[in-house]
Amino acid sequence: MLRVIGGKAKGRFLKVPKGSRIRPTSDKVRESLFNIIPPSFIEGKRFLELFAGTGAAGIEALSRGASHVTFIESNTGHCKMIYENLDLCDFKDSAEVICADVLKSLDKYFKEKPGYDIVFIDPPYNFPKWKILLPKVSTNVSIFDYGFLIFEHMSKVSINTEIEDFSLYGKYIYGDTTLTVYRKLKVK
Asked: What is the pLDDT of residue 17?
């Protein structure tokens, strides 16, 4: 069972596809994610979840006071489930779900979009193009000064990518899952 762990929708259970190979971010890692980001930072901010799956991280952000979340997920069944989970938590008016390939959407959808304060990337652990994700996201998505870029990945994969205008905020290891967190520098 997957549930919202904090904020307005705390305790609400979210739908997860049956028989799916989806790997939702665990409660422990999600709770840690929202402890890494200062709680006062989330309030009123814009959140982008790439490879959204069930939408649990973005819904958690809305529950904790984010003003808007954009979800990008390529699987149409999972997109439908994100809508259902948003409806369960009464967050439909604060969200946008884009059902599209993440890499293609980075070239297509973000030229005209307002920026984001927090970008969470959670590709499948066997995603073959993970090395290009961080540079592509940092180049194509407008992330506000002091914003967070968070990449969830297998602990056995070492992410040592330097990203222009970002500093490494920290690496947080939870068993076989690691959150590599970058913070956007103030651009002069």
From this structure: 79
Bin 18: left if φ > 0, else alpha if -120 < ψ < 50, else beta: beta
Taking residues 71-94, what's their average pLDDT? Answer: 96
From CA 58, how far away is CA 73, in angstroms rounded? 12
Q: What is the pLDDT of residues 21-55, one digit of tens each?
A: 666 777 789 899 999 998 889 999 999 999 999 99
Q: Taking the CA atoms of 154, 59, 73 and 149 in sequence, report the sign of the dihedral they define.
A: negative
Q: Which residue has the higher pLDDT, 27 or 82?
A: 82
What is the DSSP track for 32-62? HHHHHS-HHHHTT-EEEEES-TT-HHHHHHH
**CA dihedral defined by 76, 153, 179, 122, rounded to 10 degrees?**
-10
Architecture of domain 2-14+26-184: 3-Layer(aba) Sandwich (3.40)
pLDDT tens-digit map of 137-151:
988 999 999 999 999
Tokens 């604060």 belong to which residue?
94
Within 10 A of 108 (CB to CB), how many other CB atoms are there?
A: 13
Task: List, in sequence order, every residue forming a beta bridge with 172; answer none if it has no partner.
Answer: 179
Residue ranges per structural domain of the chain? 2-14+26-184
